[in-house]
Amino acid sequence: MKKEIEVPITRDGLWLDSDITYAQVPGWLGNSTRDLKLSVIRHFPNDDENTKYPVIFWFAGGGWMDVDHNIHLPNLVDLARKGYVIVSVEYRDSNKINFPGQLNDAKAAIRYMRKNACKFQIDPERFVAMGESAGGHLASMLGVTNDIDKFDVGENLEFMSDIQVSIPLYGVVDPLTAKNGSLSNDFDFVYRNLLGAEPEDNKDLDAAANPLTYINDKTVPFLIFHGDKDVVVPIEDGEKLYDTLIENNAKADFYKIKGAGHMDIRYWQPEIVDIISDFLEKYL
């Protein structure tokens, strides 16, 4: 069979730049240097100099104990098809550094991408932080700390680490209430590892790692997702985040996902992608 067809161009092609070093940090017991990586799903280059894509920074979960920044790249393609550049970020786990080291890493990745905005044809004024579970905690922390310089550590400090929208998926909010409110005791240790102390024994450390501490008039719009069957991170914490944002006149939407547990496949369905896309179109 021999055929001739005409194929219209209806969407961009996508390229993957994997495992780009965005920062170097102390490694083995402080005696070596460790590279931190990020991967970028980007659009085929466009000759139009005015073409600039908004960016979604993705932070995978793992209880701050293990981080694979590439694990969700196949799922994130759906958002790239919606017209976004995706930047999936490695951050140090709690075996390597306590909080706020993870937030320091996230902000370093954002500064790196602002520095390289032209290279990736991205719009530095339209940055989104999105993450799941422990990564959702990072997304929330980024959304409430635009005006706090102490979390900017490392290179490229001439560039801002500000974001414009935060999207936590079943994200940890307050480490103490997450530990106490969880229906499972299997993950209680992760909060001690993150803070370097039990959250109930050191309220100052707990407050420093709690996004609710920082909500102010510079807090960005939040799109929050949480499943009503989550036994790891209590949905009440997500609801508390939403309520506190609204009380402080921040923009926020909250979606309770019926039947969804922790790290549930429901979060990667087209309906969720459409909700995210609509929210970003409204606030970016």
UniProtKB/TrEMBL annotation:
Limits of the BD-FAE-like domain: 48-245
Domain of life: Bacteria
UniProt keywords, alphabetically: Hydrolase
GO molecular function, one term: hydrolase activity
InterPro entries: AB_hydrolase_fold, BD-FAE-like_dom, GDXG_lipolytic_enzyme
One Pfam family recorded for the sequence: BD-FAE
PANTHER family to which the protein is assigned, alphabetical: AB HYDROLASE SUPERFAMILY PROTEIN C4A8.06C, ALPHA_BETA HYDROLASE
Name of the protein: Alpha beta hydrolase domain-containing protein
Organism: Companilactobacillus tucceti DSM 20183
Taxonomic lineage: Bacteria, Bacillati, Bacillota, Bacilli, Lactobacillales
